[in-house]
Every structure is written in structure tokens, then in C-alpha cells.
Design brief:
single chain; 7 helices; Alpha-Beta Plaits; alpha+beta; Ribosomal Protein S5, domain 2; five-stranded mixed sheet
Amino acid sequence: IGDTIGTARTTSEEHHFAPPTLETVIIPTRASDRGALHVALDQLAEQDPLINLRQDDVRKELFVSLYGEVQKEVIQQTLALDFGIDVEFLETTTICIERPIGTGAAVEIIHRAPNPFLATVGLSVEPAAIGSGVEFRVEVSLGSMPFAFFRAVEATVHETLRQGLYGWQVTDCTVTMTHSGYAPRQSHAHQRFDKSMSSTGGDFRNLTPLVLMSALKQAGTMVCEPIHRFHLEVPTDTLGPVLPVLTQLQAVPQAPVIHGSSCTLEGGIPAARVHELQRRLPALTRGDGVLECAFAGYQPVQGTSPTRPRSDHNPLNRKEYLRHVQRRV
């Protein structure tokens, strides 16, 4: 009881790279290049850790994650020169995350309606420390079923949390397995193993999203947007025009520090607003403004939470999800 499957992540873990905060749909100019584009981007992602891909199988769209608008131009030129593929990009959007705001639990029992799978899975979800990622724990005996089934549940938990209640990746939470059960290998008399009578890894992989999303819905989540820390140097006599623009872009500057004809401003700004600030700064400062930005974390979105369309068949829609799973099986 209380055992952890896999390697637990702690708040002290450091990332070599800040996470990308923007993404866009990438489209080949020639429809016939769609397959070649996917292969080319896979190769670029293997070579460059700053390139991340996300496939939307429902809408047949390919997303590329970005650290800034300039990266679009780099990817576009590389694809054209190295692979002979011309591409276009749709509007850039911000990549948010979700964090649980409460505790939730759900369970589905084998051989008990409405569970159609030969598996018992119970899961609870609770908030964890900011920056801790996702930890999977087991409260049941590891001897209660084959270890491969525990691993199937753990892997599916991480996969499912890539899309939360609002469609964003869920993080900074602890998921605990509270119930387990399976049907041992069985067969009809003098016949071979019958998977219709015995549990398989597929039963656990298919059931886990239903249980986990039910628990997550009970817990609730908040959407958080990426924030950049900015350091801005401008001529002192341009501070008047600059400050209202920072407010307009939802930046939160600290008190300015004035050094004669030069003024320094530091603070936080939503990642989605950085490009606009970069675009407007030259006109505001006669071209003398210098801006430096770096990823600083996430903060709760104010107002209506943005959503991202799901790229799978939503486990929160039980009927649709089961129809898709049964068709796939």
C-alpha cells in the first residue's frame, strides 16, 4: 500500500528546456505532401529538442509547438530547403495547462454494469505541489493482479492526462489506484485461452480513461496560462507611452528604475502577448528599446477558461468513447 509505480517526479527536478508556450497548425501547400511533411517533421523533432509535434487524429491536423514566432520562419525555410516541402501556418495560439483544484475519485467494478470491460479500476486524483508533474501511486496490493496490468493503467493515466476537462495537459497532481481486479486466464473445456473470458491489457487501457476522467471531473481543474518574465530597457522620456501599452497587454511591471536617460522595467507578461510587445516596442521607443523575455511559469487564467478541441474520442462522452473503442477492438 502506498507504493509508487515507476519513477516519481519531485519539485526539485530541473528541466533542460523551458516548455514551448505556443503552437500552430502546419499545412503543406500541396496536399500531396501531407505524408512527406509528417515524416520530415518527425526527423526534425528527433534532431531538435525544441520542436514538438501533436497529431489531431479527429480533425487530421498536425500541430507544431513553438517558442516564438521566429521559429515559424526557421521551420518553414528548413522544410523548403532540406525537404522540398512548402508549408503554411494557421494562427498561433497559446499552450495552457490544467491543474486539479480539488479531490475526486471513481471506480468501475468487473462484471458490474455499466462496466463493459473485464477489469476493475479505481482511481483518485488530488492536487500536488506546483512543478511536481504527475505521480502515479498504488494503494492496493501489487500481488492482487499481474504487474503488467498495473503498468497498463499507469501508462494510460499519463496518456489520458494529456487532455483534461478543457483539452489541455493536466499536471501537478497525484493519481492513486484505489481498486483493482481482473479475470484470470480461462478457456472452455479442452480449448485454447479465450480472451472473452479473461482480462487482457486492453481491458485496463480502455477502462482507465473512463475512470480517470470521471475522477478528474469530480475534482475540477483550473486552466493556467504561461507567463514570461520580462526585462525592458527604454529611454526615460518614452516611459509615458510604454506603461499604458504594458497594461493593455496584461503585463504587470514592477516600479521602474531610472538611470538618467535610461529606464529599466521588469515584471511578468502572458506569453501570448510577448510577440505584440516586440512588434510595438520600436515605435514606442524610437527603436532604442531592448526587451528580454524568459519563461517564468504558469498562472490561473482570469475570466473564461480557454478550451482546446480534443484530438481523441472524449472519455467524458461515455457513449461516443465506447462506440469508438468497440469499433477499434
